[in-house]
Amino acid sequence: MINMFRARWYEVTHTITFWGFLVIVCCFALLATDSTLRNGNVPMGFDFTGLEWQLLLAPLAAGAALLCHVSLLGYDERVGTAKTCLVGPASRTQWVLAGLLCFAIVLGCYTALFHGIVDVVLGLSGYLPSITPEGLGRFLGFVGAMAVVTLAYGCLLSLIMVVCRRTAVGVLALALLLGGAVEKGCAALLELFGAGAWAVMLEPYTLFGQFSALGQGAIPEAGALLLAGLVAVAAAAAAVAVFQRRNLG
Question: 52 — phi, psi (to 5°)?
């Protein structure tokens, strides 16, 4: 498993996709910080965990990491990388899991980079953070929640790419998932059958509902995050099962 991860991580770090999105995250963090400083929205001794960077972080870092994930999976399918690396059923499982681990690390890199740039720029501008235990706990809770929800999306995309094998399909699926097409379609059906109250009640527990909450700086409930974790595990297991039986030719 370690050798498989090293091979896949080497592939990730030697593609222009990874570095391209890394540069985009850097540029957006700099531009957003500069805009806030110009508007005078940062108080002296600010609590950095309460700033609006959380609102930008969820869609930006997650979207960049997910696009990078889909692009790399599509590249593997185009060039047939798996055929040269896989030698048995166990290696197929390792291939899928190593890809998801790489995705998690990419997400962590983009997240850390975004926050690092914001804090450094604000510090150099004379705005020193006031870190409190409560603020730090909320910050870690927010980042952890975003990681769980984004990993669930990543596992679903891995399953879709294993089945469909096309980058265009993966990008379309990503747009539909992040746009809440599945959840909105189900809500419309519930409305049609006179169960609109159920749609409202279940919305905070859907992936789209949680992602939207993160985009507004809120942390989803523990029960909702547990469901997101179960979705991630189920999608990863399904991706492994399909890949085990798939013809690589």
Answer: -80, 5
Neighbours of 117 (CB within 10 A): 19
User: pLDDT of 122-144, one tens digit each?
Assistant: 777 776 666 667 767 777 888 88
Say if CB 29 and CB 119 are below 8 A apart: no
What is the share, in percent, of the chain residues with pLDDT greater than 90? 16
Parse the chain into domains and list their residue ranges: 2-245
Scan for tokens 């539909």, then name that residue.
Answer: 176
Are 145 and 225 in contact by the 8 Å Cβ rule? The answer is: yes
Instruction: Say what the pTM is.
Output: 0.85
Query: For residue 33, which of 7, 52, 13, 12 has the smallest C-alpha distance?
Result: 52
> What's the CA gap between 228 and 204, in Å, rounded?
11
Residue 151 in contact with residue 235, Cβ under 8 Å? no
